[in-house]
Design a protein that fits this description.
The chain is an alpha/beta fold. It is built from eleven helices and eight strands. Strand 4, helix 5 and strand 5 form a beta-alpha-beta unit. The structure holds erythose-4-phosphate. The site of erythose-4-phosphate has 11 residues, from helix 7.
Length: 217
């Protein structure tokens, strides 16, 4: 399973990248807004730091303008994946941009039917949003499982990029189902290391170590 970081915060990406766990980055207009940075500048910095795919999202809503924006974003670096929304126009843009050899991430996927269309339109990645489905009392992980089954049935090569990750459980379950990639906020990726029994065990070891009166250094 590949890990993408869902942020445009350079320092957060750098810390995770230094640990060797970053296979790519996803951004979206909200994350660019949150960073307070210029989209072209911050995306270029991310691409210089991370070798893997960096998703940068178009903001036009009609296919011709999406295609033009996508071409401009793709010029930033060779590891750009142009992100387009899962609309009819977004699928047209996906078809054109992927035909030109660009990686395309089709985002805002909320149904298996949408995911089929993304694969047929040549998407490199499809991004089903787990958390936002959970938010409306549907099961986002069920959608990941459905897409996995369908893509396997027909040998679709589009990678399932589990997005809108809110918890460590989302990551573990998406991995069990067979999502190809998860993209998660830095805080969720960091919290994967946490377990109360690890903290409790470490505290006991430290207490016993103090009693020995020894030092390693
Ligand atoms: C994915 O590419 C999106 O940027 C992201 O996962 C959306 O997550 P959210 O629902 O927490 O905003």
């Amino acid at each position: 399973m590949k890990f993408f970081v869902d942020t445009a915060d350079i320092e957060a990406i750098r810390e995770l990248h230094d640990l060797g766990i970053v296979d790519g980055v996803t951004t979206n207009p909200s994350l660019i807004q949150k960073s307070g940075r210029d989209i072209l500048e911050v995306t270029k910095e991310i691409c210089d730091l991370v070798e893997g795919p960096v998703s940068a999202e178009v903001v036009a809503t009609k296919a011709p303008a999406m295609i033009e924006e996508g071409r401009k974003l793709a010029q930033i670096a060779s590891n750009i994946a142009v992100k387009v929304p899962l609309t009819w126009d977004g699928l047209k843009a996906c078809k054109t941009l992927s035909g030109e050899g660009h990686m395309v991430n089709v985002t805002l996927c909320f149904s298996a039917a949408q995911a089929i269309l993304a694969a047929k339109a040549g998407a490199t990645f499809v991004s089903p949003f787990i958390g936002r489905l959970d938010d409306i009392n549907l099961d986002g992980l069920d959608l990941i499982a459905d897409i996995r089954t369908i893509y396997n049935n027909y040998d679709f090569r589009t990678e399932i990029l589990a997005a809108s990750i809110r918890s460590v459980n989302h990551i573990s379950e998406a991995a069990k189902i067979g999502a190809d990639v998860v993209t998660a906020p830095p805080a969720v990726l960091q919290s994967m290391a946490a377990h109360p029994l690890t903290d409790k065990g470490l505290a006991a070891f430290m207490a016993d170590w103090q009693k020995t009166g020894q030092k390693i250094l």
